[in-house]
Amino acid sequence: xxFKQLELADKEVIDSYLSSCRIESSxxxxxxxxxxxKAFNVRFAEHSGCxxxxxxxxxxxxxxxxxxxKGDKKAALLAACSYYRQNGLEPKIYGMTKDMTDELLxxxxxxxxxxxxxxxxxxxxxxxxxxxxPGRALHTKRNHVNKFKRTYNxxxxxxxxxxxxxxISEYDGWLEKHNVEMDYYLEGxxxxxxxxxxxxxxxxxxGAKLYADGQLCAFTIGEQLNSDxxxxxxxxxxxxxxxxxAAINQMFAENEWSHLxxxxxEDDFGLPGLRKAKQSYRPVFMVEKYSATLLEDLKEE
Length: 301
What we know:
The protein is α+β, with helices and mostly antiparallel strands. It has helices at residues 11-18, 30-35, 73-86, 98-107, 127-132, 139-151, 164-177, 184-198, 200-203, 244-256, 272-279; strands spanning 4-5, 43-47, 50-55, 63-64, 92-96, 112-116, 122-126, 154-158, 206-212, 215-226, 229-237, 262-264, 285-287, 290-294.
């Protein structure tokens, strides 16, 4: 199996596989692969009419993603697992949605150990509720947005590639001002945000920026995930402006995604603070994800 590093030029090829099925997971988009291509050394291979993606986390063994496309998934899995065994690696498949897990077990009964990956379940919300923030459950969020609008002379604008230098410069300034400790993952994300903004029009994503009293205070980037769902990949704000996060969240939903029923706001990465924040918006459901570890070598039957 011939894996190659993922680059911007691969978007058309990757999208040709992803467009052949309904994607539910925020992890399975070209933009996600592109954002994390450096931090997770993202590679991909084509085999038997399928796309097989590989992530290699910093300091950890690599893992596969379930084959995507209309081709022979069984043949692709056989080839991928054989490749791993030949290279002294334990075949593991991460980030599988429930339908992928069911299909894997049908193709290879009793060959894999399946475990839920709860830290990586996606939070999905009703778009209308992220816009209106109704009822007692969301009154705090509604108050934050209203106070932001009362406090600042604000302006909402869509992002274009021409905004790259301004946003990158301001974002770096926020990190420095608030003494954000840059770990391996944050640095990888920071670099990818710059790459996305400089190639914004080529990537086909949607973004917005928010000003308060003439200063950039927040920006966000997302895309349409499937026929009724958007996914938000990036959301950053200067916490000096109270309510900026709540405001960009609400305005982005209202201005760009009101035609879609749901918004996927990705996972919480197992971080308690992020989990609390995402739960506070009252998700309507979670996209469950699973891992699969091979018990014994696979054989063509």
